Amino acid sequence: MSLEHFLQKAISSWMNEEGPDSDIVLSSRIRLARNFKDFSFSTLFSQEEAMQIINVIKDCLNDTDIPEVGRLEFLQMESLQPLDKLVLVEKHLISPNLAEDSPYGACLLSANEEVSIMVNEEDHLRIQCLYSGLQLNEALQRANALDDFIEGQIDYAFDEERGYLTSCPTNVGTGLRASVMMHLPGLVLTNQINHLIPAINQLGLVVRGIYGEGSEAIGNIFQISNQITLGKSETDIVEDLTSVVQQIIAQERSAREALVHTSDIQLEDRVYRSFGILQHARVIETKEAARCLSDVRLGIDLGYIKNISKGILNELMILTQPGFLQKYAGGPLRPHERDIRRAAFIRERFDLEKKDNSEGGNSL
């Protein structure tokens, strides 16, 4: 399979779009947790109930034109290969829990992969909408439209005082988890991130790694989301998170300006060393690739590197993960083999970028 063809099939459309403040905010996500009335929660249900839930949601959504969403493709976890499930996790379309621990799990995906619905994960349904940049309100609007469509056909577990009922008490109420993925190299390099994270936590928000709870913040990418779902409206939750994110954006830009002012040549040297590694390395591990990609993206944002699109960095942050590398290779790879493939993949992707720029009359 050629790289061009693989990229066309592998990349979600939202990854190549530039939303508001996309130099710092990579993506915005809204996730709604919902459960069916008169069914046991996923942690306690029987196989029969699990299959009933799948059949009900298939009848409701499969091959149906949904307002503002279109048609959704149904995928049952047990019919997918482990590598395919890993790729869906790396694209943030399903959770690791659904991929690994849900024998009766399924998901529904929109064609552009901006919308995904996990079935029989921790809750019966987890409705997710993804957008590029800082677009939490837009993601909430689409998620609510889909939620209303489903609720028009299915009775949810709902309490007048507590709101939507969920398996985990921390999701009771709105069932809403709003999150943004942020690239914060300035705050990391100036050591401000160590003071910022505790302050964010005190505001009722939580900071996690690239794949959510329990994951590591590699490549200076952090996921920031709300903790409180009860006692606040969906609009209030989104507005509060947006306000904090806008303050973090301002601090990140200030930190970048300070780095340029105080350490310009050192910062430029760091960027170009990382650029050189990505273009020429023959073996590269996940963490080193993520660090170098972060440096190069910062270099693009600051104008050190020209004629390289930020989109290529968005792609490579995802495509250099183990699942994608093995998918492109056509089968399982040992860790060292993945490191070799990763380096070759990155070199090939930069060569493709050079080719595109050359055909367009530009040069690196």
UniProtKB/TrEMBL annotation:
A molecular function (GO) term: ATP binding
Residue intervals of the Phosphagen kinase C-terminal domain: 24-255
InterPro entries xrefs: Arg_Kinase, ATP-guanido_PTrfase, ATP-guanido_PTrfase_AS, ATP-guanido_PTrfase_cat, Gln_synth/guanido_kin_cat_dom
Instruction: Supply the enzyme class, top level.
Output: transferase
**The EC number(s) this enzyme carries:** 2.7.14.1
Instruction: Name it.
Output: Protein-arginine kinase
What is the native source organism of this protein? Peribacillus glennii
What cellular component terms from Gene Ontology apply here? extracellular space
The UniProt annotation places ATP binding at: 27-31, 92, 126, 177-181, 208-213
UniProt lists the family membership as follows: Belongs to the ATP:guanido phosphotransferase family.
Which HAMAP family does this one have? Answer: Prot_Arg_kinase (MF_00602)
This chain's function reads:
Catalyzes the specific phosphorylation of arginine residues in a large number of proteins. Is part of the bacterial stress response system. Protein arginine phosphorylation has a physiologically important role and is involved in the regulation of many critical cellular processes, such as protein homeostasis, motility, competence, and stringent and stress responses, by regulating gene expression and protein activity.
The answer on whether this UniProt entry bears the keyword Kinase reads: yes
Q: Name one Pfam family in it.
A: ATP-gua_Ptrans
Q: Which keywords does the record carry?
A: Allosteric enzyme, ATP-binding, Kinase, Nucleotide-binding, Transferase
Q: Does the keyword ATP-binding apply?
A: yes
Q: Which domain of life is it from?
A: Bacteria
| Activity regulation (record text) | Appears to be allosterically activated by the binding of pArg-containing polypeptides to the pArg-binding pocket localized in the C-terminal domain of McsB.
Its UniProt entry gives the catalysed reaction(s) as: L-arginyl-[protein] + ATP = N(omega)-phospho-L-arginyl-[protein] + ADP + H(+)
Q: Which intervals of this chain are the motif RDXXRA motif of the pArg binding pocket involved in allosteric regulation? A: 338-343
Q: Which GO terms describe its biological process?
A: phosphocreatine biosynthetic process
